[in-house]
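Input chain follows. Return structure tokens only.
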Amino acid sequence: MAESKRPVSREIGLEIGHVVGKGLFKLDHLHYGLWKKGLEPCILNLHIAQDEYCKFILSHIPAEVKSVLDVGCGAGAFSKKLAYLGYKVDCVSPTEYQNKIVEQVMGSDCEVFKCKFEDIQTTKKYDMIQFCESFQYIDLDRVIDIAAGLLNEGGYLLICDFFKIKAQDKYGLKGGHKFDKFMSVLENSPFKIIEDIDLTEETAPNMDIVDRATKEVLIPIADAADRFLMSRSPFITKLIKWKYRKKLQQAQDKYLNGKRTGKDFIETKTYRFFLCRKVNPSG
């Protein structure tokens, strides 16, 4: 049961993140920002850092690439940018909310595969498959074989995501495949690493922004709401808090006591950019 709830909660979180980011901070993207030296890590500068992230990805796309499969395309903002630059872009998006937005943004020239990457069915081939912070959600034991089957000869696999390098605290930062396992899978695959760039330092400030927003905005709002409800309906409020006391305690441990800062990110994760090329086994 817990496993089935996890994707749903993630989808809801992405939807809330998109609505809040777009509505309050004019953010077009759902991915991390790339924080260059001199740019203050704060929520008001996040759109600049996200643009830097997009510029970085674009600057590393090989010149011969003409068609791209964007896996986990978010709200489609980066896919639209690729299409504007002349790439033929299709998208993979398993969430209903994002599917509608992507179809509106991309129009009829883009095919949106409304499924998980592992379930994609098509005879199409691409010059590049792109995973921008979506790779961590794909089955590591299957992703390489599926990607190889969808790529043209000499096609590219672009991965920009974080991986685990150390066991995290119980309430620390989650997510990411184990880096050593990923490297082992890649070494035994039909892909050759062309580029491997460590972006951990440049992406860690995103965690500080989220941590500050949680402690300085979300939690005070929740406390104010609690006081309001206690003043209006103390009995019902106490009953609800008692019923969900374990979940409330877990939330407090996770967001107040958990190790979720940029420093913790650097200690337990490695954020990497990989560009890999499909090679002929006989060659």
